[in-house]
Amino acid sequence: MLEKLETIEREALAALGGVEGADDLLRWKQRWLGKSSELTQAMTELPELDPAERHQAGRRVNEIKTGLEQAHAGRAEALRTQAVARSLEREQIDVTLPGRPQPVGRLHPSTQVLRQMLAAWRQMGFEVYRSREVETDELNFGLLNMPEHHPARDMWDTFYTTKPAVIMRTHTSPGQIHVMRERAPAPIRVVLPGMCYRYEQISARTEIQFNQLEGLAIGRHITFADLKGTLIAFAERMFGAGVRTRFRASHFPFTEPSAEFDVECFVCGGQGCSVCKKTGWLEILGSGMVHPVVLRNGGYDPELYSGFAFGMGPERIKMLQHRIDDIRYFWANDLRFLEQF
Ligand code: DAH
Fold first, then answer.
1. Ligand 1 atom 6: residue of nearest CA
2. pTM beyond 0.70, yes or no
3. How far apart are CA 297 and CA 292, in angstroms?
């Protein structure tokens, strides 16, 4: 009898090792611990044994039964753990997880301010004219009333190419000549946005590349009053209705008369602060009546036609609006800066 019990235990445990899955496990339990199992059968046979053997066999039966029940519980637990591990392995997509947000791109701060400006000019009937970034010396300077060796050229430090007289434009003003030559003698109302390049020492205040937004209006009877009214209307669209503005006499070779245009400091409201350097005013652009020489170079008779022009720096204006103290941030490609806009 004892031998038989040992065999039952050995076989049952061996069979348990091969059990895979819940169905298998249930079948094992019926087979080795159920009503018609060999162990239960052995129990019914106990009374037939002689007392000494019966006592010993009875104890072994109970021990084996408890042992098998524990082994069963252990196997069930191991199978559960295995099943979870396998499903994690196989079903790596958890459809119950919340979705990950897609990072959304955004416009570069220069593009933002340029578009804001273009929207204001569009409302006033100005069309965008795209002009080239690589220019001839003649268009960048000569035809804008700055012949060779003219001292005014010193205001624009220039990048030269390996091709003689081909340069990177230092301002958007040469676009004036392109558009005039293309359209003369028709009236013109355009803005010319784009990148300009200067051979500068890079610092917090100067970069070797930056955008400009040029404007040009040509027609009959265009006066300085039109220039003033138009720029004031632009300032109101850009900086808010009622913003105070002022014109200051200035000089540019391609305009006569020339003026610089200031808006009331939008940081301190004209009180005087570090942004406006205690003046209460922020200079935002240069402007003037198109010089007769420039009109003629563009194909317009200065006796019959007149016009005004202006040029502004979008990055400079963005810097004033957001109190950005270093122009180098614009092209440094640092997301910590770019993501703030
Ligand atoms: N081209 C000038 C510059 O880069 C800006 C400018 C001033 C443009 C006056 C104009 C103007 O059209 O009328 O400094």
1. 311
2. yes
3. 9
